[in-house]
């Protein structure tokens, strides 16, 4: 039976606002389990003494943030909000307004830093960290899943995109990813997490790279070809020697995830979205 | 080596420090990042005085989170120093002694560090809660309209730092990774 408007599930703007506000405050205080686990494992396995001490300090910071109820990092980011909107959901009220109100409340009540300027050139702070960077994906079902990634810009600034030639192939992609990480050096607060997008178009490939940061880093790509490429690139990155904070050492990256999509016969777009050791994400379902 | 530094800083205190050494810094630190540096450059262009005395000063590139009740400051780790590269040589030539931030610096900044026997110290990037615990008091000096980017005077105690570039121009961002790779 086809669902009519009256049988759709209703989610109110207020519910969306409340959830986004909670996710903003929560994401900034507690790392996702996979990232914290990777930090602790790296501290154990790091062979270089200065690097091990540095990782130890970064783990101590995670505890300090919890104990003192402070954000893990002072760059509490631009709020990237991902919505997986079930097509059987009716949103009562303005969706984008509800999300932005959640960001406004989450950042104000959560004592988070307001890091957004209203215009890229005239640069006046909006004072409430809005607007969020919102991505909406329409999915089957009657649920709304919201994920907040507060994205710091020390790492965002080191991200790169290239339109490679098909002849460059997988070797060209590997070279581009490694060059991006090498050029980023100490700036993105290593150990980093790397999101790689391959395929699509100029705009879609950047979205793929950001989307790759949504996946837990201990979850390999479902396609064994790309899972192997992820493992190989991570190993290559951890041979660069940059190390935690760029002071030298093995642990340059904690994880690397690849997302792909079909592309044109004439192109091979690739994008690298770099994230820091404070790679934050928090999700909730309505 | 581990050193203790207490402000006011003298050149003699800085000269033994070598890239990779650990430092515990106590005393007065001024905060300034992108927008405050731009305004300081504008004041200098106009021949007007800066909001704090530059000779011997320590500038920390930080924009803290708002302080929750009961805290003097919120999370307060360093921002990427490279964005201040355009301004730093001029400030060093006018007497600034210490820069605190994270990430590497341009050749022009390294030249100015050497020329002025200054140092660049790295704080732990992304460790805002840890750095916050070293701050004992905060006073806004000027440009409150800049919010987290306003110039603040911090009194800090035992702030844990690493010498990133010493007064001879040695750079831990080059020597650290090179030493690790050589050890393999």
Kindly report how far apart the N and C termini of chain B lie. 23 Å
Residue-averaged pLDDT of chain B, rounded? 95
CATH architecture of chain B: Alpha-Beta Barrel
Counted by DSSP, the helix tally of chain B is 6
Q: Sketch the major β-sheet of chain A.
A: 4 strands, mixed
Q: How many structural domains are formed by the residues of chain B? A: 1
Gyration radius of chain B, rounded: 16 Å
General shape of chain A: globular
Pick out the low-confidence regions of chain A.
none
Q: Percent range for helical residues of chain B? A: 25-40%
What topology, given as strand order, has the largest sheet of chain A?
A: 4-2-5-10
Provide structural commentary.
The complex is a heterodimer of chains A (286) and B (184). Chain A has 286 residues and is α/β, with parallel strands linked by helices. Chain A folds into 2 domains: 104 residues, no CATH class; 126 residues, no CATH class. In chain A, 38% of the residues lie in helices and 24% in strands. Chain A is built from 8 helices and 10 strands. Chain A has a 4-stranded mixed sheet with strand order 4-2-5-10. In chain A, strands 6-9-7-8 form a 4-stranded mixed sheet. Chain B has a single domain, classed as fumarase. Chain B is built from 6 helices and 7 strands, in the order βαβαβαβαβαββα. In chain B, a hairpin with an 8-residue loop joins β6 and β7. The two termini of chain B are 23 Å apart. The relative contact order of chain B is 0.22.
Précis, in short:
The complex is a heterodimer of chains A (286) and B (184). Chain A has helices at 13-27, 33-45, 49-68, 95-109, 153-156, 169-184, 202-212, 224-237; strands at 9-12, 78-86, 89-92, 133-139, 144-151, 160-164, 192-200, 253-263, 268-275, 282-285.
């Amino acid at each position: 039976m086809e669902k009519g408007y009256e049988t759709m599930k209703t989610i109110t703007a207020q519910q969306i606002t409340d959830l986004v506000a909670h996710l903003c405050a929560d994401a900034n205080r507690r790392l996702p389990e996979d990232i914290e686990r990777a930090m602790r494992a790296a501290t154990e396995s790091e062979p270089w003494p200065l690097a091990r001490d540095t990782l130890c300090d970064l783990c101590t910071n995670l505890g300090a943030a919890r104990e003192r109820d402070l954000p893990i990092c002072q760059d509490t980011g631009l709020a990237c909000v991902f919505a997986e909107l079930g097509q059987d959901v009716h949103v009562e009220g303005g969706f984008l307004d509800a999300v932005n109100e959640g960001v406004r409340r989450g950042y104000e009540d959560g004592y988070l830093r307001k890091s957004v300027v209203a215009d890229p050139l005239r640069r006046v702070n909006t004072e409430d960290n809005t607007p969020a960077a919102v991505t909406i994906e329409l999915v089957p079902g009657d649920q709304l899943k919201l994920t907040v990634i507060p994205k710091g810009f020390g790492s965002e600034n080191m991200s790169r995109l290239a339109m490679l030639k098909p002849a460059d192939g997988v070797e060209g992609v590997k070279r581009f990813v490694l060059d991006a990480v090498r050029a980023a050096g100490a700036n993105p607060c290593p150990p980093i997490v790397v999101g790689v997008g391959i395929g699509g178009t100029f705009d879609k490939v950047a979205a793929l790279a950001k989307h790759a940061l949504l996946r837990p880093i201990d979850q390999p790509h479902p396609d064994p070809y790309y899972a192997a490429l992820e493992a190989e690139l991570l190993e290559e990155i951890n041979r660069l020697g940059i190390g935690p904070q760029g002071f030298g050492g093995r642990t340059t990256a904690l994880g690397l995830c690849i997302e792909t999509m079909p592309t044109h016969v004439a192109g091979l777009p690739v994008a690298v979205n770099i994230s820091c050791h404070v790679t934050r994400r928090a999700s909730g379902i309505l | 080596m581990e050193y203790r530094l207490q402000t006011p800083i003298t050149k003699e205190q800085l000269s033994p420090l070598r890239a990779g050494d650990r430092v515990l810094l106590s005393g007065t630190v001024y905060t300034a990042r992108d927008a405050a540096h731009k305004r300081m450059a504008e004041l200098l262009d106009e021949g007007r005085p800066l909001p704090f005395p530059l000779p011997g000063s320590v500038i920390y590139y930080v924009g803290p989170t708002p302080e929750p009740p009961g805290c003097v400051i919120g999370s307060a780790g360093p921002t990427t120093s490279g964005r201040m590269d355009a301004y730093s040589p001029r400030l060093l030539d006018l007497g600034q002694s210490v820069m605190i931030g994270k990430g590497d610096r341009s050749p022009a900044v390294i030249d100015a560090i050497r020329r002025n026997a200054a140092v660049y110290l790295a704080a732990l990037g992304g460790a805002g809660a840890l750095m916050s615990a070293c701050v004992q008091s905060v006073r806004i000096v000027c440009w409150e309209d800049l919010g987290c980017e306003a110039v603040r005077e911090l009194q800090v105690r035992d702030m844990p730092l690493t010498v990133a570039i010493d007064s001879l121009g040695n750079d831990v961002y080059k020597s650290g990774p090179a030493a690790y790779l050589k050890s393999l």
